[in-house]
Amino acid sequence: MARQLVSDALWYRVEDLLPTPKPRRFRYPGRKPVDRRKVLAGIIFVLRTGIPWEDVPQEMGCCGMTCWNYLRAWQKAGVWDNLHSLVLEDLQATAKIDWSRATIDSTKARALGGGDRTGPNSTDRGKLGTKHHILTDGQGIPLATAATAANVADVTMLLPMVDKVPPVAGQVGHPKRRPAKLYADGGYDSEPHRTQLRARSIAPMIARRRTDNGSGLGVYRWVVERTASWLHGFRRLRLRTDRHGEIHDAFVALGSALICMWFL
Length: 264
Description:
It is built from 10 helices and 7 strands. The chain is an alpha/beta fold.
């Protein structure tokens, strides 16, 4: 099962990013360390299925709480964000990232039991939820993702998402991190934000509120909606059960990196 969930290509990229395990003592060495590839398989299994940690099957080779502890430790070490940046560099090296335009949107997920960065969801009768903000390139590759409370306005995350795109090396010249254009729906309509985008050398292509439908921008924006659907294809993100914000952030970053891997 570990081989099915963690491909050689994925493990090749992750292994060097993991913190070096502590050396074992000569006397009283304790238990042998678990196979970290099996731990990663257990983490991805939970991400995909949404299964509770305590229900992770023994066939995975490690218990669910062990996977939880490693997920949290690796999140603190920056493993998942570094993995996302590394896969983006691989895509850039093969010229698979479309920097001519980018798209931004958000999607909401119910948060059972609440937790960090949750808030009332206006589209779900005020129940607690989390909002996932996604910024993609012109073909749907996630360049940046973030999680906030469900009641956070989209426009407030416009510039933070643009600035969150990491410098992507992989080709001759300076690393890329700015698309030429940014497409967004009316939820991001703001003249001050348009000015800030132009200051970043990004042409704002943002629909205006209180105007007739049919702006034509949907021809380009549909790719981010597809990526949002892919992200919620991971059941742990579609229905949030983790109260700890760092655990949920880890799943969001890992899911984004896995989606990027599909484009390689």
